[in-house]
């Protein structure tokens, strides 16, 4: 009985471990290994890890890809641009998502499931279709410009598509549910008596929110921000369809290196550096969250 | 602390006996349901007023109206002469100790207690001093840096009390202050609460469903039922002279009988009671018209039990009845006897066990006399 229980526990822990090992760790090691190879015209298009000279193996390490990335202005600016877009989008998602999550959490028990349904509803349509729809909306002769012209608010159509603005719209629109849902899960659990206690002690509603609700919702803010920020940094589809042609995001660079230039080592190095860049904010936010949770 | 308590008890109204907190026809409706029904109540400065009632009696709603969390559907509330109708909770001179304590989990004990003072924009030094003083008063001085989850239930209760008292409110509302504590701690805390209240002189309104708690804490009690206050009085008033069957039954245990008034003379009101099988003579009761149907209550400890009929009755069937002991529950300090009388009705009688090892204790199925003094029966108004 004991033995089977232990076996069961191992199975439960083992399946996700195996999953992560096979589908994450091993591919990651392969990417890492390709990033320190050199390009060559062959299949596969990179040098092997070991080369044989007179019967002895030589380890072949090429750091050229990394050196190239860190010195070439195109890559540096792509990284910075990606971080900026992701950070600004995350802030917008937070600014829009927090009040929405708060309102849902405070809504009546009858309307709450419907509101949550509305948040999830867009997922019923393909992500790609929804981003394409924004082209139709933001186009030079698209819906938004036509409506504004018709209303007489503008004389000439605005250049909305292929701007940073369009990228922000696309990312915020697509990722907003990932901000709202963890925030809602957090806010919904809050004890309303605490707000009454704060009011009783003389705190106006706004002060009570800042002193009680906001600090207690920090875990939700962190979770939502990570869920938006991380995929937004590597976002490929939205900037490609809606963004500026002259400023690439790093996901696009990666794809170009891989498919256009067939430079697998540089593409792999780009991927590794994205990961390295993401680890910093993740660790910071997790530490913030741990400190707040440690208070409980 | 002296200056602060002086401020709290400094009389503002000219007449010190006038109502400090006054409720006039306060009503609260939730849809069709009337939670609080035309409650009028005067509470004096410095007293501990206990609102006692079962769940759904409206006592908590009334407390929340006083705190400002609920707006009354009708009626007015004045605290120290000031109308509270348009005053939001954060501007009322009232603080509340919540049943769940509602301590802020992400703040230390010190921060929790300081929260109210910080809203007033007091100086840091002054806040530190006041927080230190109040924590000392509730004997939590060493715990300022702890978070609520690091405290025991009793310690949390004391922090909640400190937080509610630190602003020296004119009125402190306590919602089931002792309900979350275990029995031993509850008794101890009751007396501590009384002590602190006397030292600070703050007016307390306590909501509780526990009659024992209400009796020990309250200078006066208000018994609530179905949103109404059914009786207001001192603990002794309420216990000895309950006004209604509900109050008699709710506070302590009681034997109640329906009967018909036969008449009255200087010795009291005479009530014929078929169920009891004897005439009840109630001294000092307000006389009702002969023939009126009334209810009479007798507390179990006011009934004597013996093997012989009482000497002074002289055979008249007045305030004395025969019965058979059916159950005996030995409680240590006292025993509870369930005695069945001729009509089949069970009477509850309690006797203190004053001597150790009585030589011939009553046994089950023994035939006994039950008798009581003329002052014991209470004629109820309804």
Structure description:
The complex is a heterodimer of chains A (296) and B (382). Chain A has 296 residues and is an all-alpha fold. Chain A has a single domain (68-294), classed as MetI-like fold, CATH 1.10.3720.10. Helices cover 72% and strands 3% of the residues of chain A. Chain A is built from 13 helices and 2 strands, in the order H-E-E-H-H-H-H-H-H-H-H-H-H-H-H. Chain A has helices at residues 2-35, 64-71, 73-106, 112-120, 127-138, 143-151, 164-187, 192-200, 205-216, 218-233, 237-242, 250-259, 264-294; strands at residues 50-53, 56-59. A two-stranded antiparallel ribbon of chain A has the order 1-2. In chain A, a hairpin with a 2-residue loop joins strand 1 (50-53) and strand 2 (56-59). In chain A, helix 2 packs across helix 13, helix 7 (164-187) packs antiparallel against helix 10 (218-233) and helix 12 (250-259) runs antiparallel to helix 13. The longest helix of chain A is centred in the first third of the chain and has 34 residues, at 2-35. The radius of gyration of chain A is 24 Å and the shape is globular. The two termini of chain A are 37 Å apart. Chain B is an alpha+beta fold. Chain B folds into 2 domains: 2-246, Rossmann fold (3-Layer(aba) Sandwich); 253-380, OB fold (Dihydrolipoamide Acetyltransferase, E2P) (Beta Barrel). Chain B is built from 9 helices and 20 strands. Chain B has helices at 2-9, 59-67, 109-119, 124-137, 153-165, 183-200, 211-217, 235-240, 245-250; strands at residues 21-30, 33-43, 48-53, 74-79, 82-83, 94-97, 171-175, 203-208, 220-225, 228-233, 255-265, 268-273, 278-282, 293-298, 303-306, 320-330, 334-341, 346-352, 367-372, 378-380. A 6-stranded mixed β-sheet of chain B has the order 6-7-8-3-9-10, with helices on both faces. In chain B, 38% of the residues are buried. Chain A binds chain B through residues 191, 193-194, 196-204, 207, 211-212, 215-216, 292, 295-296, and chain B through 67-69, 88-91, 94-96, 98, 100, 102-106, 115-116, 119-120, 147, 149, 163-164, 167.
